Amino acid sequence: MVLATAAYAAGPQLPCDASTSYMYPSPGTSPTIEIWHGSELAQGNWQPPSCTGWPAGSRSKLIVTLTGSFHFDGTMDGLLTKIGAISTLKDIFYWSATDKKWAHLSTDASALTDAKAKDRRGDFAASDFGKNADLYYWEDSASTGATVYRLRVSESTPQRLVISSDNVTAIRKFIFTLVKPGALQSLLFIQRLSPPNIWRLYHHTDRRRRKRPVKWPRRDVHQPCRCALSTAGWNKNRSRSSRHALRGTHGSVTRE
């Protein structure tokens, strides 16, 4: 895994357009991780591009991006089926820097029919990931407890997928609020290349400053999803780290 502090750049350049020229590591090599702190972003006057849907005047406390490529011999629907398998989050491990050991990402997780944690449903199918779909899931973490997340599908074609993620409920540790609702956001871009078994991935995690809680719109039908990508293609340890980074916050951002 390549870890770089990106203070030399004004801020991350997101692949909002499918034709955007962007450097990706080759399949079979480690993904690239870059980090921007709030002071660096402010100094460079970085603003989120319009494809994020985030207010131009909002500010980020911390941004982490992960860029990589992988082999997958299936279709986009096959990847969506893996992404939609919310119940498997508890089977994913991540490396705990604090405890210096592998730990379960979640103790339990479930797809939801709406933004209420009690409204559980089965895992999402590929057909749930239609353009503009809002998808909700619940995750119980051993470190931060239960949180509801929302994922919104902004693009979904056989060649390209773009999903954003927000925390609908606050992320807490004991009685303390670590992240307010809507302050942890992410964007996931997946692009299929030629030959057809090569895929490129860009994941943007943004911890955002937010003064007021988000008012989430109510809809009659909600189609949940998760950004934990159980994709094939990277070796065991690499897939663990990538899945942890991709969990719709399983992603993140923080703004005011």
Give start-end ranges of low-pLDDT stretches: 211-256
Do you know the CATH architecture? 2-Layer Sandwich
Portion of residues in helices? Answer: under 10%
Record the strand order, biggest sheet: 1-2-3-14-13-10-9-8-6-7
Provide the succession of SSEs.
EEHEHEEEEEEEEEEEH
Number of DSSP-assigned strands: 14
Count of alpha and pi helical runs: 3
**CATH class membership:** Alpha Beta
Query: Domains counted in the coordinates: how many?
Result: 1
Portion of residues in beta strands equals: 35-45%
Distance between the termini: 32 Å
Q: What is the name of the CATH topology?
A: Alpha-D-Glucose-1,6-Bisphosphate, Chain A, domain 4
Explained architecture:
With 256 residues, the protein is mainly β. The protein has a single domain (2-246), classed as 2-Layer Sandwich (Alpha-D-Glucose-1,6-Bisphosphate, Chain A, domain 4), CATH 3.30.530. The chain contains three helices and 14 strands. The protein has helices at 38-43, 76-83, 236-246; strands at 2-5, 32-37, 60-71, 93-96, 101-104, 108-112, 120-121, 134-141, 145-156, 160-167, 171-173, 176-179, 184-192, 198-208. The chain has a ten-stranded mixed beta sheet. A two-stranded antiparallel sheet has the order 4-5. A hairpin with a 5-residue loop joins strand 13 and strand 14. The radius of gyration is 17 Å and the shape is globular. Residues 211-256 have low confidence and may be disordered.
